[in-house]
Amino acid sequence: MIIDFFEILLNAGFWAATIRIACPLIFATLGELICERAGVLNLGIEGIMTAGAMVGWTAVYLGADLPTGILYAALVGALFGLLHANFTVHLGASQHVTGIGITLLASSLSYFAFRLILPSSTTPPKIEAFQPLQIPLLSDLPFFGPVLFQHTGFTYLAFLLVPLTMWLINKSPFGLAIKMAGENPMALEAQGINVLTIRTLAVMIGSAFMAIGGAYLTMSAFNAFYFGMINGRGWIAIALVIFASWKPKQALLGALLFAGLDAYQVRAQQLAGAFIPYQFFLMLPYVLSIFAMVIAAKKTRYPKALLIPFRRGERH
Amino acid sequence: MRLEARDHVPEWLTFLVPILAIFFSLFVAATLLIIADAPPLESFYYLIKGAFGSKNAIAETGARATPLILTGLAAGIAFRAKFWNIGAEGQLYAGAIAVTVVGTGAINLPSTLMIPFLFLVGALAGAVAILPSVILKQLFKVDEVVTTLLMNFIIILFVSFVLDGPLKDPMSMGWPQAASIVDSGVLPQIMERTRLHFGFIVAIVTALMIWFILGKTTFGFKIRAVGYNSSAAYHSGHSVIKTMILVACISGGLAGLAGVTETAGLKGYLTLDLSPGFGYTGIAVAMLAALNPIGIVFSAIFLATIYVGADSMSRAMNVPTYLADVVVAVTVLSVLISLVLTQYKFYFKSNSK
Amino acid sequence: MTKVSKKFGTLTANENISFSVSKGEILAVLGENGAGKTTLMNVIFGHYIPDSGTIALKGVRMRSGDTKAAIKSGIGMVHQHFTLAENLTVLENILIGRNPLWGWTLNTKAAEQKIMDISERFGLKIDPHARVLDLSVGEKQRLEILKTLYSNCDLVILDEPTASLTPQEVDNLFVTIQSMVKSGLSVILISHKLDEILKVSDRILVLRHGKVVADMARVKANKALLAELIVGRKIKRPIQKKAKFTSKVLDLNSINTSPTQGSPMGLKNIDLELRGGEIHGIAGVAGNGQRALCELIAGQIKPQSGNLAYKGVLVNSFNVKKFMAMGIAYIPEDRNIDGVIGDMSIQENSVLSELNNPKIATPRGFLLLKECVAYAKNICKKYDVRTQSLSQPARLLSGGNVQKLLIGRWLERNPNVIIACQPTRGLDEGAIAAVHSMLLNAKSDGRAILVVTEDLDELLLISDKVSVMYNGSLTAAKQAKKLEKREIGLMMTGSKIEETIR
User: Fold this and answer.
1) B231 vs C369: CB contact, 8 Å cut-off?
2) What is the separation of C-alpha A12 from the centre of its chain, rounded to a whole number of angstroms?
């Protein structure tokens, strides 16, 4: 019986599922990472992901092609990001309260708009979602085929985004400005770079990533939009950002680790369902996130200027 | 554009904040109504009618306001001490579970004892639910926003578990719901043949108590001092850690009380959909009232009006009910704008150094 | 000899200051705190606009108030408090702003090469890939200097560069400065450490109360002369009331604290006796451990070794509440951060520490609002706290009134020990006089008072005994009557008092 629990790890389906489950987390974590690196805590993530999920799906439902759907989702995400930045970066309002407000607003607007477009639906309608790509030779490999090479284009996009973000943060001048904005904005200002602009752009880009993460759920993982489908992934991403020490590579690892545990618990449920109620398995991701935060808290090196609004011309 | 903090915010300006906020959110509501092809004025008429148009309507509004007052107080008192408790939703359910465990037959007391007992149990459960988050914050500096939030999901899953198993009502014919609260524990109606129950009175009394504590006791003083400037409070001999823990527990307890009113007052038994987000709405209630306990009562009634009115308005005008949620969300953001507008002076020309 | 930086500044902090710096010259600027050194440098660097006067670099007049222009024309400044991003690497801190924002690359290879070159030329060893957080203070300073050199500066201003360096690092710094001037740069060095200035500078400029009092070549200067110039000859001595009691109230013996507690250098073997009816003044440039000492006596820090006795009894547990109950009052130096709660009313601030006082609140915890108002009214009347209304937020009070409120609040508790840290910093003359008389009255009531201050005039005005804090250690206490400002000035700058010429 115990063997069965280990055998889960040998199952190709398990690993494929891990990759799929990781994707929205990768988008979300990278997005939040960029915001926080610039010094802004974006608690609107859960709402923005909802909005992205709804907008991307609806765009396709109304006739757009899939890549355009992603674009619309990103745009809406960036708009909410702009709204967030307006409050927090330009007006210096509380980042905590603004974030909660944005989450409430983005979610409720999404549900409202969805109901407006599809007033009567007991079962949510479906779209033609992204299909797994067929890569010659690689897709047919035993084990590694299904695990690595039978995913949708959207999935590969998520993984591509990791090196892209790494390049952005670590190798580009814009990324350096973002980091400075989050560590010592005065030094940035002293070089003649507008801190407010950099922070706003960072929040917009990060929010776009978050929205894309939401869209992944409705356009690749599933093909319909359900109410409450984000289900706390946004909040988990916030914990993962801390766990990843604000580094993209570690964010990827964190997301994979987390997704692996999530995929595992689904399968373990089937084995142990008789003994342990499924709800406890479902609790695991959230409990683990809290643990991740506790572990990370000890070695935490927050971006120094996180949560502190920057006022022009202020000096020590 | 430059912002400069005002030295002193005149009293009338602080009252302007919620008024501006309300106007702004109604403006957004009107815009959405137009987009939804519903004439705004007519819709607002149905909204008011739905909330106040009949005895039943008023009772519904009052019943809706009850948990909102309590979760609003929970958010209000925590935010005062700068403890960002976003877990009121979970703490509410914790209270609901607790009263279900003791109140469905396990213990039997006469009403006059049973009801206070249930409230006590619910409050304790809510306080216990928040304890991990505040301890993690004090010991390990773990951000309480995320931990209280994640606890919501954990607790709600736990509710699902107990409704499937241990607390499942054998007579519910398969529906996941718990047994009813025993008669002696049910909160009596205060308006006949309506759903308005004793919990409404409890909520208002609680608001008065919190107002009293904050303004007239040393503990309330400490809460405010620690929230405004924990360093100066420390230098004056106050224990910041103890104060924070107590405040958090009270906050959790208040949310737990909301769980009691909904389970023992409104519904009579625990279900998974006991709270359609009261915990989160409580944050909006608190913000709109500038964290003032008496203001929270009015703010809760206002938002309850929106929700109850929107229910009937959406039926009449064929507009999605989520409009109410949008209004609530906009309220939070417009309070923030109004705060900035009143606390700062704007300079539009950039002065040369 | 062509590079010239002339300045005729006039702010109330700087009065009609003119001087010049030549190419390849090290100019030291000396003066007490408040003498105007930092203001002057900020004017040169463009942070402030002078009311009158001009600055010219290499014969070209500079636009005032434009930091970016200052940097561009070749002035670099290494501030006392570093402007570094701790979590980023050395390379990243240098590269910020040097590449077009929308470019594709940071050109790290070229930058690394340039850093290596500068490193070698000026003896500034540093690892470009090290995280700033992991650097020692000396290395962080090297990085700050590197930043200015990277920008090809002609004039570098160093503000109190040796403040937190070890002797070894100080030597390294001087080697660097020498190689900088050999390459043709000019250096302005702000410092209060006479030894170092005499070692390394070419010319010395002394400021006092915003004016230039001396502009001399180094060869003409010596320590005694400089100390005298810095503090001036006049000393105001008041008529001191004779102390009534002189019993020992607080006794610190060989107190040591670790560098992580409150002060970057830790307290080293502190011996201190506070007596009732006596004011003990502690002089010293800020940052030498004064804050840690105050916090220790207030009960906020527990010493690593050594003991503290209160009224003859050893104290084992250190917490604020207990020390307050014992009768120790602490008036902190950041009165707006640690003293008053700006957003609460004056009335509420008056009773902030009195929640256990049966006059203010019942034992059950109910505030007696009428009594609170009366208490606040009393404090404001007794200690001359001027305000339009008691219910105004405390942040509207002027600095002097805040201080009077704080001291008054503590005095109402009838404390046995009062610790006042920089009590008159930032106050106007009237408020200063009021605070002094409050402290002197407290002294004649028999209380033991500790005053930490950088203002030597104040120190000698009100103290009975004086010690000096330097690098975490406290000198032996001397009678204030017998001390000259000059001697204290020397002690503050690190020299031993035996070297004083009487």
Assistant:
1) no
2) 25
Query: Is C83 in contact with A184 (Cβ distance < 8 A)?
Result: yes
Mutate to test the interface with C, among B7, B229, B246 (most CBs of C within 10 A): B229
pLDDT tier, B62 (very low <50, low <70, confident <90, very high otherwise)? very high
How close, in Å, is residue B336 to chain A by CA atoms?
Answer: 7
More confident: C210 or C320: C320
Which tens digits make up the pLDDT trace of B138-159?
888 888 998 999 999 999 999 9
| ipTM exceeding cut-off 0.90 for this assembly | no
C46: domain CATH number is 3.40.50.300
Average pLDDT, chain A: 88
Write down which residue in C231, C264, C284 finishes a domain: C231
Which domains occur in chain B, in start order? 2-346 (1.10.3470)
Domain definitions of chain A by residue range? 21-118+153-297
User: For the segment A105-145, what is each residue's pLDDT rounded down to a tens digit?
Assistant: 999 999 999 988 888 767 778 888 888 887 777 777 777 77
Angle at A153 between CA A149 and CA A159, to 5 degrees: 75
Q: Which range marks the domain in which residue C33 is found?
A: 2-231
User: Between chains, do C365 and B219 touch, taking CB under 8 Å as contact?
Assistant: yes
Rounded to the nearest angstrom, the minimum Cα separation between C343 and chain B is: 7
B contacts of C410 (beta carbons < 8 Å): none
Neighbours of chain C (3+ CB pairs under 8 A): A, B
Answer yes or no: are the C-beta atoms of A225 and A124 closer than 8 Å. Answer: yes
- Chain A: touching chains (3 or more CB pairs < 8 Å): B, C
Confirm whether C412 is domain-assigned: no
**Tell me, which fold does domain A21-118+153-297 have in CATH?**
ABC transporter involved in vitamin B12 uptake, BtuC (1.10.3470)
Q: How confident is the model over A259-281, as pLDDT tens digits?
A: 998 888 888 887 777 778 888 88
Please check whether residues C226 and C309 belong to one and the same domain.
Answer: no
Q: How many Å lie between the alpha carbon of A135 and the closest alpha carbon of chain B?
A: 39
